[in-house]
Amino acid sequence: AHAWIEEVEVASSPLGAIGEIYVDGINTYVQAGRTVIFTPAFGTIDGKTANHKWSLNIVAEWSNADNVYIVKSVSNGVGSDTPAVTLKAGQIMIAAHSWENNATDPVYRSVYNRNQFNGIEIGDKLSVSNIDVAAAKIGAAATVSWTSLSGYKPENNTAIPQNVALNKGYTTSGIHLTNGEATYPDENGKTLTDGRNATADGNYAHIAFVGFHKGSAEYEANGYATITVDLGAKYDLNKFVANFASSKNSGSGVTAPAKVTVYVSDDNSTWTSVGFVSPEDSTAINVVTAVLDLTKSVTGRYVQFRIESNTNWFMISEVEAYGVSATESDEKYLVGDVNDDKIVDSVDYLLVKRACFNTYTLSDAEEARSDVNADKKVDSTDYLLVKRIAFGTYIA
C-alpha cells in the first residue's frame, strides 16, 4: 500500500503576538463558533449574506511598510442593527462569532474567539498565516494573530494577561428574590464568570443576565451589591471588566449602575480598593461595559465588584479580571526600589522604616522589593541595606 503526501506545515504565531484564532472560512456565512475572513471580492457584507450580526468584526488594511494588516475599526455585531460593510482594495474583515443568541449553553469555540481578541484596538497589527487573500483561499491551520501597539502589551514580553476570572467560583449579594427564589437567576452559580455575555440586542431577560435589586436586604444593609470572585491563587491584575444591561431597558426599570468599585484581597477578609468606574449608559444598545484599567498591577487572590445602582433594577451578565500568575511572573525589579519608580532613593528607605514601625503597610510586591537580604521578612536590617543602596555604599 502507498500513501501520497503533498505537504506538511508547522504554524506559529509572530513574536509578541497576544491573541490568535483559527479561521474556518473565507467569504462565507458566519456560523456559531466560526471565524470568517471577508475580502473585497465578497461585495457588500450585510446581515443577510454574511450573518456578521453576532460577531466581533475587525476591519484591517494592508500596510506595505509594516508587511502586516493594520486594524482600522473594531465593532461588535448588534443584531439586525449591525451596519453593512463594503471593503476597499487592500482591506479584509475578520468576523469572529461571539455566541449563539439566546442559546441555553455557550458555544465554547465562540467564547475562545472573543477571549483571544479581547482588547484589540485600532492601530494594532494583524498577521495571517496559511491564508491567500488575493485568491480567497485558506489552507490547513489558517490563523489570524494580533500584536498590540497600546498599553495592553505587557512589559518585557512577560506572560500575557488573561481573564483569570473565567469559570472561577464566586459569591454574590443583592440578587433579587421573589418568595425566596431569584427572579432572574444565577444558574448553577456560574453565569457571571462563564465567558458568556448577553448579546448587544439581548434585553434584560436575556439568559446571560443575573438580576440585582436595590431593595434587596443585602443591598439595603451595605449600600451596594457585590460579586466576589475567588481566583484560586494570587495574580498580578491590571484590568477589570463588568457588563450590564443599559438604559435601553429603562421601560422595564433597568439602567446601568451609577458606580462600580473594584477591591482585591489575599484572604477574602481585608479588602483594598483599586479604583472605580462609572459605566457609560446607552439607550441605543442593550449592553454596556464598565472597564477599569490600571497603570500599575495589583496583587490578590480575591476580586470584589461593588455595584451602586441608579435605579431599583440592574442586570449583570459577566465580570472579568485580567492578569498573570503572581508566582510565575518573570517581571524583573530593582532590589530596594520599594515604590517601583526604577530608582532606589530616600523615599524607598523611609517606606521600609515606616513599615518597621508599623506606620505603613507594604503590599506583597513592595514587601518583595524591600526584602533585600531575602530572609522572608522586612526589618531594620533591610532598612539599613536599602539606605546603603541609596547612598551607593552597597550593591544588592
Low-pLDDT segments, ≥5 res: 11-16, 100-105, 150-158
Query: What is the 3D form?
Result: globular
The average pLDDT is 82
The total of beta strands comes to 18
Classify the beta-strand content into a percent band. Answer: 25-35%
The proportion of residues forming helix, as a percent range, comes to 10-25%
Structural class: mainly beta
* Spatial strand order of the main sheet: 1-8-7-5-4-6-3-2
Query: Using only CA atoms, what is the Rg?
Result: 24 Å
**Biggest sheet statistics:** 8 strands, mixed
Q: In sequence order, what are the helices and strands, one letter per element?
A: EEEEEEHEEEEEEEHEEEEEHHH
Question: Number of helix segments?
Answer: 5
Q: Please, could you describe this protein's structure?
A:
With 396 residues, this protein is mostly beta strands. Helix content is 11%, strand content 35%. It contains five helices and 18 strands. The protein has helices at 108-116, 217-222, 346-356, 364-370, 380-390, and strands at residues 19-22, 25-26, 35-38, 55-63, 68-76, 91-97, 125-132, 137-147, 162-163, 170-173, 177-178, 181-182, 210-213, 225-245, 259-265, 272-277, 287-308, 313-325. Strands 1-8-7-5-4-6-3-2 form an eight-stranded mixed β-sheet. Strands 9, 10, 13, 14, 15, 16, 17 and 18 form an eight-stranded antiparallel β-sheet that branches. Strands 11-12 form a two-stranded antiparallel sheet. Strand 4 (55-63) and strand 5 form a beta hairpin. Helix 3 runs antiparallel to helix 5 (380-390). It is globular, with a radius of gyration of 24 Å.
